[in-house]
Amino acid sequence: MHVRKARTDLASTHLAVPAPGALILLRGGTPGCLQPLGWVMPDAVPSSRVLSNRTALVTGASSGIGWESARLLAEHGATVIVHARTTGEGEDAVERLVSAGVQRDQLIALAADFTRLASVSVLAGTVARTVPALDLLINNAAVMAPERCTLTDDGNEVSLQVNFLAAHLLAKQLQAPLTAAKGARVVNVSSSLHRTAAMNWTDPHRVKKYSRVAAYAQSQLALTMATRDMAPEGSGITAVSLNPGLCDTALLPLYGRVGAPPAEGAAAVVRLCLPDVPLVNGEYYDGGDIAPTAQAVHEERSRRRLAKLADQLVASA
To answer: What domains lie within the chain, and their CATH numbers?
Structure first.
């Protein structure tokens, strides 16, 4: 089978560390580098908003459900770390959020290309140094599996890496700030397609027999299976996954149907972030309620096997 290499645009480097809660503006410079343009300290956030004094990281926040989630979280008072693939996309997302009424001092823009695990680690390290406590981690970034099997420079099938392995790595490397938040939540944006999937343990990159739908569905199954372990016992973290519904995003062609506005999916995501909404750790939500999952999600042996595989696949980061 012909296997392509995924294109990458961002290499790993370290950022200067601003004061906690500062707005980071990113600029281009040396190709493949993250460079801080400057920062502005935020004004006080109105105490009447339910997520005031809380910090959220939203991955894949440059468009679709991620961007709308960032907007809604900010409207609830949160400081939002807006992750995008490139600096330009991050700056553009921030400007559109400001135009939509979000206060600029609530936004932190960071760029990382999830097709490079080293870049994911840089993002995690920068977040950990920038904010003392991370209250919300929304793993939303996702790509549609390509028509042909495509491997990243790390050797992983691209949708498996972007949709699952990046989230796995972030959750592990952000344990300290998540635990420090004392009641943090991890919300993994999954898909109902995970129920149609099966893990290909002997060929997780599906090089031998590739189907874009099967590859994408496997990435969503892995993310849903791994959710419970993103909240280690005693950490105070609660981790859940959800189906945001069929929305009009870049992933819609995979479903071949008409989708709802991304704001509707974002509302489902943000609802699980609100402190007055009780959650059950490790569960999968749909329509605001706990929903049935693939059997493997609740099989401890399968989850342990997945955790071991994921650790092996991100070892190069």
So the answer is: 4-313 (3.40.50.720)
